[in-house]
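pls ignore typos typing on phone
copper (II) ion + seq
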Amino acid sequence: MTVDRRFLLKAAAALPVAGLVSGVTRAANALVEEKADYTLRIATGLIELSPEHVVSTTLYNGQFPGPLVRLTEGKRVIVDVYNDTDTPELVHWHGQMIPSGVDGAAEEGTPFIAPRGMRRISFVPKPAGFRFYHTHVVAGGDLNRGTYTGQAGPVYIEPADNAGAYDREVFLVLKEFLPFFSRGGDMAMDMLVGAPLKELRDIGKKAEEQFKGPKGYEVGYDLFSINGKMLGQGEPIRVKEGERVLFHVLNASAGEIRSLALPGHTFRIVALDGNPVPTPASVPVLWLGTAERISAIVEMNEPGVWVMGDLADDDRGHGMGIIVEYAGAKGKPRWVKPKPYKWDYTLFGKPNAAPASPDQTIEMLIVKQNGAEGGFNRWTLNGQAFSMDTMTPKYMLQEGRRYRLKFRNASDDIHPLHLHRHSFELVRVGGKPTAGVIKDAVMLGGYQEIEFDFVADNPGLTLFHCHQQLHMDFGFMALFDYA
Ligand SMILES: [Cu+2]
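k done
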């Protein structure tokens, strides 16, 4: 992965020479315009997932993933974004507590980057940890727009003190390409702990009776990749026995839930969505909803050549994996299917601790209206689909207050819920109380409930939505504002 900063440092070192030629001009220019720390160019380009599969899509700086953006917490950054496409674009800084005007969501009032135009943005990065950036435009029925494209890249915000005991970091960006619509319907997944609630099933059933007819469109993909390469393509991750590798895994999918396993090894999870967890714990399998990140340390103590890949044979078979190769090891990469494993966020919470009590609880009931909008499913929160035309804030927040959001999912889909510009603390997942797990995106199981708290500490319009592009584009959004 290209690290832009290295290039920039080189460029900066070259500056004094140019200064000899025209020191005065340079000083004058510096007053007018500071140099950007990063430049992102949005343009159509090619990505070679394998020699047989070269995909044309929209990319950042002609690559996938976009360049790793390394920032320092609290240190202002300038990013120049050029839009070399014919449609308006937005760059969202996922997981950062920054102002609405630069967060990168039109619903929050962030200006679009005009077609063939550019916008300079500047913000103070926070909090420290693994974040990412991605487009935030509505795709609707256009699979060449939004997060169906290759517009995603990792961000790492350096913390004040680096406590991790590991030998090196590896960033893994999981992403599908060549999307298509089908009426097949998504398979219900049940890898989350907690049981479906009968009451929510009944509400879902009623909605199904009301919205009969063919199933709404779902999105499938032909090709799968890690860091822009299909399994077996590109360089393997080369490791040595005894090494501790810190993996930063990002699910940059437009809507898929991903799993990842490395046979013979376990993942010691140290951070979720870039935030250190109160109780690091070892797990055999990672599960990540769309936009979720996991930072996990793997101790390399099982020499061999391994496939680190998705549990779904079909997805792995079409590229969702990467080879891990020990020094000196030879042979065909091995895959061993792990035992079924239920994902439980509360494993990483504070044991026996209760979260602070909220000042107010807001409940949202999630209902699917099958095929209700031109063949697409429409999603309602408390009976209302978000209107892209009016973009009216539905909830007023008071600064400093602690809000509990309680979601009740009357559909069988898993929803990766995402709140902009704020972090939240999980307080109840799959019927289990918890505290201390801080996230910005979280999976809500089919016919299940989830509760999380956030403190209104970042005034301005704030968007909440399901991170499934197909769901957010068809109603699954709500806007918060500060009173
Ligand atoms: Cu959803």
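The CA atoms of residues 427 and 434 lie 5 Å apart. The chain has a mean pLDDT of 92. more later
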